[in-house]
Amino acid sequence: MSCDNFESGQIKIPASEWAGLKKTVRDAYNREQARLYSTAVELHEEILRQAEGVRNVKWLGAIDRATTALSRKLTDRDYSLVWKIFNPEMKPGAKPVSKAQGSADRPKKPLRKTWPDATNRQTLFTFDEAAISFDDKTKTLTWRVSENNRAVERAHAHPVAEALFEALNRIKWTRGSGGEIVGNDEINIHEGGHCAGGGGAYVTYTFPPPERPRIMRRW
User: Fold this and answer.
1) Structural domains in the chain?
2) How far apart are CA 36 and CA 156, in angstroms?
3) Lowest mean pLDDT among 61-65, 201-205, 208-212
4) How far apart are CA 28 and CA 30, in angstroms?
């Protein structure tokens, strides 16, 4: 079932945890960049293999056969790599105007610089509809997922987001640190519109996580 949703929030990070959190996100991002490059190389080789011995190659046909051959290994995000192979200048996640783009030419060998590693100076990381930004001055993390169909679920399934939220759950929170992430979705907005004050944004994450309620026992 389709459902447009979005999510955003700011979290104040303890100074002692700041550098480690940034490194965790950066390392996860770089691992994914390396994986994307490796997958692009494998996909490029498979496209050429599918075109071997064929005269007047129709590259879209070779692409279809290559992605079918590698379908068990490819994630949904990996299919955009096809267009990066034909057009290395295309931004990550972008899609061509039409399937005909680049279809007449032999695909170019992927270059590692198309998927560059983040440096320790990088403060913005984007993927799918999500963005993670770090404000070094205020030690504040911003998480934002732009509205789209199942955008929140897709963002949280990304390896970089998984690494981020696992790290947030390990942080030793101090006084004055923490924050909330809020979101909303079209179902809540629609159904909540039938009552006063309904349909508003709701909290999806709280840091530090709330303590479990204590159960008072009577002996």
Assistant:
1) 4-31+120-207 (3.30.70.100), 35-114 (no CATH)
2) 18
3) 208-212
4) 5
